[in-house]
């Protein structure tokens, strides 16, 4: 039997999870998703994580992503979640709610990045690689010769006086009813800024929008680095969470 670990990806709009086959780097079963409660408080979100895990009758280690800075299982920021998350020992909270199952918590984009570097678009790539997850906000994962620099949070770089994710995230596109062309223009400006700071060899674009690369990647301008869509698409966070739980 293949090695399976459970992964959960907490997002600003949805919480999804599934057992992951770590030999293939893919979901072992179709994922289960529930809506993120509003407000997205620790107790409310923890209840949803329990619902997702119990949907599969899972009884083993669980890896969980969180959309913010995570150090030693403690959530330090919560840009798109309720502010009551700040300072919470999230790993301990979820382990308690999951009846003592071992729980590992890490930043959501870092999880997606580790999965893409192991199984996806970044596999075998050296140099500097930056994964950007585009969704409710903008997450980032920075790698140098395959080594992760955790919790970079490049979606919060200032761009024209604004938090970048408020201008170039998928939520910003939807809220502003932007055309693909206009959104790609904003995304180009953001990626040009990131490139100026870090000079990556490769950008990997993740999040749900990576299912539609033909809609916007050809419209990105002024970026010298190679740009690829995430191969694991919106499952990368779940896979990376499971990888972290394996240790």
TrEMBL record:
UniProt superkingdom: Bacteria
Pfam families given in the database record: ROK (PF00480)
NCBIfam families: PolPhglucPhase
Protein family according to the UniProt entry: Belongs to the ROK (NagC/XylR) family.
Name of the protein described by the UniProt record: ROK family protein
């Amino acid at each position: 039997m293949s090695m399976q670990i459970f992964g959960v990806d907490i997002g600003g709009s949805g919480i999804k999870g599934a057992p992951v086959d770590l030999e293939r780097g893919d979901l072992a079963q179709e994922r289960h998703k529930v809506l993120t409660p509003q407000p997205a408080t620790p107790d409310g979100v923890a209840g949803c994580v329990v619902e997702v895990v119990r949907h599969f009758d899972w009884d083993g280690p669980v890896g969980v992503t969180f959309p913010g800075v995570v150090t030693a299982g403690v959530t330090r920021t919560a840009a798109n979640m309720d502010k009551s998350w700040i300072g919470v020992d999230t790993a301990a909270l979820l382990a308690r709610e999951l009846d003592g199952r071992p729980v590992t918590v890490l930043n959501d984009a870092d999880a997606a990045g580790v999965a893409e570097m192991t199984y996806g678009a970044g596999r075998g790539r050296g140099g500097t690689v930056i994964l950007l997850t585009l969704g409710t906000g903008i997450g980032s994962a920075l790698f140098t010769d395959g080594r992760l620099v955790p919790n970079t949070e490049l979606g919060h770089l200032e761009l024209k006086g604004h938090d970048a994710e408020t201008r170039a995230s998928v939520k910003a596109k939807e809220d502003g009813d932007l055309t693909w062309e206009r959104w790609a223009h904003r995304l180009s400006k953001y990626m040009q800024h990131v490139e100026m700071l870090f000079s990556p060899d490769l950008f990997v674009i993740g999040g749900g929008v990576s299912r539609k690369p033909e809609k916007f990647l050809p419209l990105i301008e002024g970026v010298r680095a190679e740009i690829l869509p995430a191969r694991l698409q919106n499952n990368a966070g779940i896979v990376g969470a499971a990888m972290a739980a394996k240790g």
